[in-house]
Amino acid sequence: MILVNRETRVLVQGITGREGQFHTKQMLSYGTKIVAGVTPGKGGMEVLGVPVYDTVKEAVAHHEVDASIIFVPAPAAADAALEAAHAGIPLIVLITEGIPTLDMVRAVEEIKALGSRLIGGNCPGIISAEETKIGIMPGHVFKRGRVGIISRSGTLTYEAAAALSQAGLGTTTTVGIGGDPVIGTTFKDLLPLFNEDPETEAVVLIGEIGGSDEEEAAAWVKDHMKKPVVGFIGGRSAPKGKRMGHAGAIIMGNVGTPESKLRAFAEAGIPVADTIDEIVELVKKALG
C-alpha cells in the first residue's frame, strides 16, 4: 500500500459541519485514526469524542498529525489546504468541489513548495483497504488485495473496486485524484509509488476525457513501469467543447480527446477496458 495505513493520524478540517461530522463518523467506524478536528471559533468542543481546535497550528501543537482531510466550503477550501501545509502536515486530502480555479493554482504551487502532498480538490480521497480511509468512499466495497487504483472519477472508482473485490483480486491503496482542471496530485505522481510498493502487483488507471494527465501517465508507464497497468477512459462519447460531469472533463481542440488518450495508452502497451467487468478480465490476464 502507499501513502496511508492504519497508523496514519488524521486531522479533520471542518469537522463540526454536516459533511465533516457525517464522514468523520464513517471514517472512525472504518478504523481511521482521527486525532483532532479544526473549526475556527469552535475550539474546546468535542465531535464524536474527537477534540476540536480553532486552528491547524493549535491542533498540531497538541497532536502528531500525518494527514488532514478538508470539508470546508469552496470559497475557503484552498486557504484551509494552505493552512495545513504551513502547519507541516505532509498529506492533505481536499474533498471540496467547486473551488475557484485561480485559488487552486496558487494553493497547488505553494503546497508543493512547502513539501506537502495535496490530493484533490473535488476528490473522494484515499483508502488503503481494511487499514484506513481518509475520504468519502463506501469502505465496504474495498477488500484487501493486490491491485492499486488511481482515478479521476469517484463513482467509477467504487464500481471498479467492488468488481475487483468480488473477483477475489482486491485492492491495496485507491487514490481518487479529483476531476478538476487543477489538482494537487496526478496519475504520474502516484505511479512511481505503486511501482515500488511490494504489495501492489498491478495498477488500474481510471481516466476521463479532458486535460493531458492520461497522456503524461502513459509516457511514464512506457519508460519506467515494471508492473502491468490497465486503463479505462470515462466520457468517451462526449461531444467536443461540452463539459461532462467534472470541470476538467472538457475537450478543447485535439487535447483531451478520447482518441488522444487511447493512442497514448496503446503506445505504452496499456490495455483499455470498455466496461467495469472488462477491467477485471484485463487485470486477471495481466497477472497471469
From TrEMBL:
<dbReference type="Pfam" id="PF02629">
    <property type="entry name" value="CoA_binding"/>
</dbReference>
<feature type="binding site">
    <location>
        <begin position="95"/>
        <end position="97"/>
    </location>
    <ligand>
        <name>CoA</name>
    </ligand>
</feature>
<dbReference type="InterPro" id="IPR017440">
    <property type="entry name" value="Cit_synth/succinyl-CoA_lig_AS"/>
</dbReference>
<feature type="domain" description="CoA-binding">
    <location>
        <begin position="3"/>
        <end position="99"/>
    </location>
</feature>
<dbReference type="InterPro" id="IPR033847">
    <property type="entry name" value="Citrt_syn/SCS-alpha_CS"/>
</dbReference>
<dbReference type="InterPro" id="IPR036291">
    <property type="entry name" value="NAD(P)-bd_dom_sf"/>
</dbReference>
<dbReference type="GO" id="GO:0004776">
    <property type="term" value="F:succinate-CoA ligase (GDP-forming) activity"/>
</dbReference>
<dbReference type="InterPro" id="IPR005810">
    <property type="entry name" value="CoA_lig_alpha"/>
</dbReference>
<dbReference type="GO" id="GO:0006099">
    <property type="term" value="P:tricarboxylic acid cycle"/>
</dbReference>
<feature type="binding site">
    <location>
        <position position="158"/>
    </location>
    <ligand>
        <name>substrate</name>
    </ligand>
</feature>
<dbReference type="GO" id="GO:0009361">
    <property type="term" value="C:succinate-CoA ligase complex (ADP-forming)"/>
</dbReference>
<dbReference type="InterPro" id="IPR005811">
    <property type="entry name" value="SUCC_ACL_C"/>
</dbReference>
<comment type="subunit">
    <text>Heterotetramer of two alpha and two beta subunits.</text>
</comment>
<dbReference type="InterPro" id="IPR003781">
    <property type="entry name" value="CoA-bd"/>
</dbReference>
<dbReference type="InterPro" id="IPR016102">
    <property type="entry name" value="Succinyl-CoA_synth-like"/>
</dbReference>
<feature type="binding site">
    <location>
        <position position="42"/>
    </location>
    <ligand>
        <name>CoA</name>
    </ligand>
</feature>
<comment type="similarity">
    <text>Belongs to the succinate/malate CoA ligase alpha subunit family.</text>
</comment>
<dbReference type="GO" id="GO:0004775">
    <property type="term" value="F:succinate-CoA ligase (ADP-forming) activity"/>
</dbReference>
<comment type="function">
    <text>Succinyl-CoA synthetase functions in the citric acid cycle (TCA), coupling the hydrolysis of succinyl-CoA to the synthesis of either ATP or GTP and thus represents the only step of substrate-level phosphorylation in the TCA. The alpha subunit of the enzyme binds the substrates coenzyme A and phosphate, while succinate binding and nucleotide specificity is provided by the beta subunit.</text>
</comment>
<feature type="active site" description="Tele-phosphohistidine intermediate">
    <location>
        <position position="246"/>
    </location>
</feature>
<keyword id="KW-0436">Ligase</keyword>
<keyword id="KW-0816">Tricarboxylic acid cycle</keyword>
<dbReference type="Pfam" id="PF00549">
    <property type="entry name" value="Ligase_CoA"/>
</dbReference>
<protein>
    <recommendedName>
        <fullName>Succinate--CoA ligase [ADP-forming] subunit alpha</fullName>
        <ecNumber>6.2.1.5</ecNumber>
    </recommendedName>
</protein>
<keyword id="KW-0547">Nucleotide-binding</keyword>
<feature type="binding site">
    <location>
        <begin position="16"/>
        <end position="19"/>
    </location>
    <ligand>
        <name>CoA</name>
    </ligand>
</feature>
<dbReference type="GO" id="GO:0000166">
    <property type="term" value="F:nucleotide binding"/>
</dbReference>
<comment type="pathway">
    <text>Carbohydrate metabolism; tricarboxylic acid cycle; succinate from succinyl-CoA (ligase route): step 1/1.</text>
</comment>
